[in-house]
């Protein structure tokens, strides 16, 4: 699976290289095991059907890719955000699960997909015997990750904040589903211009930086800011929720 020319294991490998653990994390109680891992969901035919149907629905109405690639990537990044910041295994797994399931509501409709997705996730997680308290965390994260109305996603939990950061960092040309460049809208153009994206979490500096490489012959950097202002606001709030600052670095220049 390739996102920006790197495979997900390579991205995770890079992330792991600078991982650190907060001192207070070591004092937390031992993680309580969940009855499932995200690997179970990756094999689940109902989950796969919803993700694939959601992506197909969005392709019809001209949206960028929201399929298994996006689900896998967001799941890995959300887990990594919490791992790098020293959260325990259980919270990391919940973030991975929320990341994998967060867009299944698109199988019903793009509109209010965060709310419908949260309820679909509840049914799926109940089937696996996940505790109501953990289902509530995943539902809260999915329900608060933002949609296409004027409401911004709001972090309500560390799992929720990690999901928002992971979801909003997926800007890449492989997301463009429109095969005809002459019919690109601004979202297509900015995504197509993004040749690499990486969310760097620095626990020492308490900073989270979205590093983008944008081909400015396709879209000027300003277009990114015009289109993604809501995403930047959501990411800033999510990083602050985790006790970090949020930054954007485009083509090697720190712009936020
Ligand atoms: Fe979404
Ligand atoms: Fe998403």
UniProtKB/TrEMBL annotation:
<dbReference type="InterPro" id="IPR006674">
    <property type="entry name" value="HD_domain"/>
</dbReference>
<protein>
    <submittedName>
        <fullName>HD domain-containing protein</fullName>
    </submittedName>
</protein>
<feature type="domain" description="HD">
    <location>
        <begin position="63"/>
        <end position="172"/>
    </location>
</feature>
<dbReference type="Pfam" id="PF01966">
    <property type="entry name" value="HD"/>
</dbReference>
<dbReference type="InterPro" id="IPR003607">
    <property type="entry name" value="HD/PDEase_dom"/>
</dbReference>
């Amino acid at each position: 699976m390739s996102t920006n020319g790197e495979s997900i294991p390579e991205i995770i490998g890079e992330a792991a290289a600078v991982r650190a653990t907060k001192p207070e994390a070591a004092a937390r109680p031992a993680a309580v095991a969940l009855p499932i891992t995200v690997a179970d969901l990756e094999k689940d035919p109902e989950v796969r059907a919803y993700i694939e149907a959601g992506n197909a629905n969005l392709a019809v109405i001209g949206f960028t890719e929201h399929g298994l690639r996006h689900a896998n990537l967001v799941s890995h990044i959300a887990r990594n955000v919490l791992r790098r910041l020293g959260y325990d295994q259980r919270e990391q797994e919940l973030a991975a699960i929320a990341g994998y399931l967060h867009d299944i509501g698109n199988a019903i409709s793009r509109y209010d997909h965060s709310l419908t997705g949260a309820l679909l996730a509840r049914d799926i997680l109940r089937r696996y015997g996940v505790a109501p308290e953990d289902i509530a965390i995943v539902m809260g994260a999915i329900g608060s990750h933002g949609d296409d109305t004027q409401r911004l996603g709001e972090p309500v939990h560390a799992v929720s904040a990690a999901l928002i950061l992971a979801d909003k960092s997926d800007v890449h040309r492989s997301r463009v589903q429109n095969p005809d460049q002459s019919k690109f809208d601004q979202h297509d153009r900015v995504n197509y211009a993004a040749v690499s994206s990486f969310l760097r979490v620095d626990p020492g500096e308490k900073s989270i930086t979205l590093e983008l490489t944008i081909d400015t012959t396709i879209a000027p950097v300003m277009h990114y800011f015009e289109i993604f202002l809501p995403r930047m606001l959501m990411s800033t709030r999510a990083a602050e929720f985790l006790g970090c600052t949020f930054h954007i670095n485009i083509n090697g220049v720190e712009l936020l």
